[in-house]
Amino acid sequence: MTFAARLATARRVALITPCLLLGGALLSQYVGGLFPCEMCMWQRWPHLVAIFFALDAYALKQRPQVAFLFTILAALAIAASGVIGVFHAGVEYGWWEGLTACTAPAAQGSTQDMLDSILSAPLIRCDVAQWTLFDISLAGYNAIFSLGAAALIIALLLPRRSQP
To answer: Which of 7, 137, 156, 161 is least crowded, fewest Cβ atoms below 10 Å from its Cβ?
Structure first.
């Protein structure tokens, strides 16, 4: 496969992956009734950035070096969402604590302090998976698909050794 063909395939993966993953997240929210927690929202932003970079790669495909750069940037953004997904899945599985208020323990102290804590707490907890399939949460699937797609894009763009 020529470099131009590999670049075209990488561009397609860089555009299709975040569109599908972000589309799935929005469908699960607006059709499936699964409301996102704070860390779920964190995973969406890199996909939006990846879509922007992938569209730039398509718009500038007549300039292969620039298209290559934007495709790499899209892959990095997709990988960033995957890394956030790994972190979020780890919080859901109890491997480590989250960084947000949606995973914080209840406040200690007076009744008023506890009431204030309850009233100011987010409705959706980051440390509880709302949905799983084969014991993998949506954050886990985002991690798997995002990191896999980013690796595929990078592999497609790596220089190939010529055969003797």
So the answer is: 161
